[in-house]
């Protein structure tokens, strides 16, 4: 039986991106779509974990209209890489202006993670719009953490359901492979450590995701550090097996948007001596992660 959410998307032409995960939406032009059509796209996003729309033409105002259909847009930490006049549109790029200044962040987001996992209310979704793409490399990979959770044995689910993870922005910046920088006192104060559930419940339909990450994870509450990090490594390896991963090869005009409540993502590198890349990234504000209800021991 269809749910009301599924019924609300039935005029969209949808194909899965991979197995049960994601939605390639084929019959919508986002620039000219009316509000009712955009609402259907939003509902498809809520159900499928990620959406892809190809051959789109999106001016900055079109991007703002589209992202606002999903919720309140989130601002970005590094303001200097935002599109002038559009503080919610962040540029991922290896391109420079005529004076040699970088137009965007390069090699940002390499390593499996979920955006803003170090915040009390991590961003709900991330959208990328491809303006310039490399001929090879530079893929975006999404891991379906709902499928990964569902495949766990029942006793393993019961073991992981109550676990809580300590995330730290300071730990992330000081240990990252690319774009490491010196934190200011203000940045430290603005980003206090947070504790999140390891298993996250999706507010749309209650599906559960194995909400692990790398980079910001410092500790698992109640476990010895060695044991905790061994478990984190084991789980990240598990959820990022090829059977759970959709790898997106970019074309100009692609709009890819994923739900950070039930996916992990990473970028792959490309030959930046040969190719130029320009993508616009927009975020939607999120809510405090919902934990699995477990019985008190
Ligand atoms: Fe990211």
Properties at a glance:
297 residues; alpha+beta; Double-stranded beta-helix; nine-stranded mixed β-sheet; three-stranded antiparallel β-sheet; 8 helices; 25% strand; globular; binds fe (ii) ion
Q: Short summary of the structure?
A:
The chain has helices at 4-7, 35-48, 60-68, 145-150, 154-160, 169-175, 185-190, 225-239, and strands at residues 14-15, 23-25, 50-53, 73-74, 82-83, 86-93, 125-132, 140-144, 164-167, 194-197, 199-201, 208-210, 217-220, 245-248, 255-259, 263-267, 278-284, 290-291.
CATH topology, by name, is Double-stranded beta-helix
Low-confidence stretches: none
Radius of gyration: 19 Å
- Number of structural units classed as domains: 1
User: What class would the helix/strand composition place it in?
Assistant: alpha+beta
Give the C-level CATH assignment.
Alpha Beta
Instruction: List all distinct small molecules, including ions and cofactors, that are bound in this structure.
Output: fe (ii) ion
SS elements, strand count = 18
Name the overall outline: globular
Q: Could you estimate the helical fraction of the residues in percent?
A: 10-25%
By CATH, the architecture is named: 4-Layer Sandwich
Mean residue pLDDT: 92
Order of helix and strand elements from N to C terminus:
HEEHEHEEEEEHHEHHEEEEHEEEEE
Spatial gap, N to C terminus: 37 Å
């Amino acid at each position: 039986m269809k749910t009301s959410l599924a019924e609300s998307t039935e005029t969209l032409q949808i194909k899965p991106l991979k197995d049960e995960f994601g939605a390639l939406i084929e019959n919508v032009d986002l620039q000219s779509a009316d509000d009712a059509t955009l609402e259907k796209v939003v509902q498809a996003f809520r159900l499928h974990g990620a959406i892809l729309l190809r051959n789109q033409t999106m001016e900055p105002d079109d991007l703002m209209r589209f992202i606002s259909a999903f919720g309140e847009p989130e601002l970005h930490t590094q303001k200097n890489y935002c599109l002038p006049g559009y503080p919610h549109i962040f540029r991922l790029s290896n391109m420079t202006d005529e004076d040699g200044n970088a137009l965007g962040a390069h090699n940002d987001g390499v390593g499996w993670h979920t955006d803003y996992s170090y915040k009390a209310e991590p961003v709900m979704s991330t959208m990328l719009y491809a303006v310039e793409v490399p001929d090879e490399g530079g893929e975006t990979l999404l891991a379906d953490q709902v499928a990964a959770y569902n495949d766990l044995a029942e006793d393993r689910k019961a073991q992981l359901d109550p676990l809580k993870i300590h995330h730290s922005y300071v730990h992330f910046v000081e240990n990252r492979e690319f774009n490491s920088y010196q934190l200011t006192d203000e940045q430290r104060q603005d980003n206090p450590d947070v504790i999140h559930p390891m298993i996250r419940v999706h507010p749309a339909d209650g599906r559960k995701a194995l909400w692990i990450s790398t980079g910001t994870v410092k500790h698992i509450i109640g476990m010895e550090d060695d044991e905790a990090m061994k478990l984190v490594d084991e789980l990240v390896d598990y959820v990022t097996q090829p059977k759970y991963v959709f790898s997106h090869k970019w074309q100009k005009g692609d709009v890819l948007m994923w739900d950070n409540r039930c996916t992990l993502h990473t970028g792959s590198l490309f030959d930046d001596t040969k190719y130029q890349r320009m993508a616009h990234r927009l975020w939607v504000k999120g809510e405090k992660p919902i934990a699995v209800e477990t019985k008190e021991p």
